[in-house]
């Protein structure tokens, strides 16, 4: 369906992002960054998530010259506060208890760095509304171990989907890569084309 003459590199260790990008059915490599995300300082959530995505993507661009690098970072924002990946059981329970019955935002920033050094970034935002959660459900979900590697302490593509009443926006964005918006950018920048018959 699509073709590219670019060497594409995904700057992410996330298996979820890998699965999503693979939907374009184009060859790509995975090279991960070794950056300290907490080094990013910003005044807005959009600037923060964009800063982290750029940090990761620039790091990989240094390692793989002459490639087009695609990087991303996803954050969960509730009441203008960042809910990081929980490190402890207590933190995971706290995140989910706060999100129970409420609406929060999932923001994914995507950074594209072309071989000529041109950088493109955008932020996709999806609203997520949680069911009112019982303590039993919160504790059972946390006990599954699923929350720990996920922003906000849940994964919509795993058992965390049981917590979600509805979403407004791109589902894939909540998973970690707004594929439709990324595709639109890659087509617009002629990084990928529709395959000739």
From TrEMBL:
It catalyses: UTP + H2O = UMP + diphosphate + H(+); dTTP + H2O = dTMP + diphosphate + H(+). One of its GO terms (cellular component) is cytoplasm. The keyword Transcription does not apply. One of its GO terms (molecular function) is dTTP diphosphatase activity. InterPro entries: ITPase-like_fam (IPR029001), Maf-like (IPR003697). Its cofactor is a divalent metal cation. Coiled coil: none annotated. Its main location: cytoplasm. It is found in: Cytoplasm. GO terms for biological process: nucleotide metabolic process. Nucleoside triphosphate pyrophosphatase that hydrolyzes dTTP and UTP. May have a dual role in cell division arrest and in preventing the incorporation of modified nucleotides into cellular nucleic acids. Belongs to the Maf family. YhdE subfamily. NCBIfam families: maf. This is dTTP/UTP pyrophosphatase. It comes from Lysinibacillus sphaericus (Bacillus sphaericus).
